[in-house]
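Before relying on records like the one below, remember that each one covers exactly one chain. Contacts with other chains, cofactors or solvent are not represented anywhere in the record.
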Amino acid sequence: MSRDYEIPREYLQNGEVMEFVFEQNEKDFIVDEIPHVDYKRDKGNFLVIHVKKVEITTWDMIAAFAKFLNIPAEKIGYAGLKDKHATTTQYISVELKYEKLLKKFRHPQIKIIGTHKHNHSIRMGDLAGNRFHIKLYGVDNIEAGRIEKLARKSEKQGLPNYFGYQRFGRDGDSIEQAKAMIAGEEFIEDAKLKKFLISIYQSVFFNEWLKERVLFSREHNGGKYKLLEGDIYLSSEDKLFTPSKIPAKDFEDGKIMPTGLLCGRGVYRARGEARKIEEKYDDEFLYEKGLRRPAIIFPKDIEMSYNKDFNVFSIAFTLPKGSYATVFLENIANRNFKAKKIKEKKK
């Protein structure tokens, strides 16, 4: 399959481009994981560890705990991956028997904030969302007003739930490897790597599909996401369904979310008008389990402040799990960020 995998992410508002400086580092990019339950109220045979990490990946953080406890990394539960170039907090879990030993844990980039007992190990996806605190530099008075206006607009109308540039690696290397593996041109023995590359493959198709739906919405619905006959929705109870008529009011009220396809087996596929677009970004022969992903997300609890003396704009917001803060910022800036460019700015 010949396909250009450098697919730009298009946004609904399509306004002026803003050139504020955004850097991912330990001071300017802070992420706090929001658990799906209150661990303080639980009891059980597992220990939930609230961890703060700085400039280190979740994988490397887990590896450090595994080495210290002398256990396989698979014995450590976690809900999601957090950015490396940031200060982040998240929750991991181990068996309760390691509670005493963990009091001796020391690492220059990892700090244990607190511990709680829980009745089972943390599993992937066991979180409600993430809270972000980010600083933007080089923002003048006019741009500060525009950022605030666009942030509030996304709070009311939502924004496209793209996979961000972090998903695909630098220079598209992960994308090309995934493409070669799916085409049978490269054999991958490592099960974890194979699963990761398949998820990359699914994510590329999703982003391509979402880009077409965004462009369609800009042309036919004045910049608001346009629902189509046959779309599949996610209810507030996390159930997928296809209504008999387009439920515009429920979508506007945030009661339901339209979804896009992560291709694979055993997944609901759109119908009718919606399927005509979706089928162009589907691989029905992919054996990996398919999923549906919300097409639109609504940031919540947005807080903003502006230091006009230093042209620094601070913004905090909460996103659902699996969503990218960089996509939220791209939506405001109306331009795509790339890992290489952000790295260059840090020099």
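The first strand starts at residue 21 and ends at 22.
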